[in-house]
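Tutorial, part two.
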Amino acid sequence: WVASGRVDEGSGNISGSVVVHDGKVIVPLSASGVSAGANPTFECCVGRGAVTALNARTGEQLWSYVTMAEAEYTGEVSSTGVALRGPSGAPIWSTPSIDAKRGRVYVTTGENTSLPATRTSDAIIALDLESGEELWVFQATPRDVWNMACGRRSGPNCPSAEESILRDWDFGGSAILTELSDGRELLLAGQKSGHLWALDPEDGNLVWAQRRGQGGALGGNHWGIAIDGERVFLTISDPGGGDRMPGIYTFDIATGTPLWEHRLAPDCSGDRRERLPGCNARYGLSATPLVVDGAVVTAGLDGRVHIFDGVDGRVLFQFDTARPFESINGIEGEGGSVDSNSIAAGAGMVFIASGYGFFGQKPGNVLLAFRPRRNRD
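Running the prediction step on this input gives:
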């Protein structure tokens, strides 16, 4: 079968993976209008996050959930006289998380892209797995309305500072449900604000929170966190200068107590400055980290791989991927920035996709495979 996961024309993009569970295909939708808002003649904005559930055998749509009502003309006009629409946004960039015991699906959302602000933006939301009914909403950052008109030179579709906090503090990664040694469960999620949130999955109430760095449009915690059962690992991107904290920060899952951290410093040595313009500003950890065999695998916007011992933070391995490679298929290979969901493991190896040309970062075209060294007596 072939089926559309769309709810309507305003919810048409899929960026997170679908999840198959108990005969259902759970589809996250991320349309938001965030890019279209940069166009000064666009009637900003339309698009909204959504989730649909399809029958895995037939493709029939079983239920749908939208993060807000469909956008309408608000009666307001931009500074260039273009009619404005809203609400919009709260896209779901990430893969939904399944809670089989409670019969729930958890999703994380991004910012609003036009006024009015909604309670579902920058949020963690619990839905009933059978019906799609909204069960609870934890909004981490209210009144965050932002689109790509809100750059250094604010465009006509950007709200004023009186109307929005103008942060772009999405949740870019999935929420993680984990069980503690005493049987309690927590729902964990990292945010582009630099926050790490731990919620009670039953009712969405806050259990503990930590924050590292300043956050921003490119992180904070950009694409997600990782856990090893006892510890949670928060990677921080924080591109730019000033009082920022790129690196990895580790906390006890049960209490939120800080355990160890590793702050990164830029490396512009040798020819890296030529290979990586901006190497002194973009070197943090934006890609989703991976925990495998007790090691925490991370890689940075400057192409450097950093692997840590999950217990004590010792650096186990470092490698520069932002360089030329001789590929096995004969195509000229070039590494670059590592971002998004670029780290995986399997068949006794770790795989890293190096090269990510968005946001002024260094493009590339290589998939690198690493095999752990074996101890030799």
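The mean pLDDT is 95. In part three we will examine how such features are distributed along the chain.
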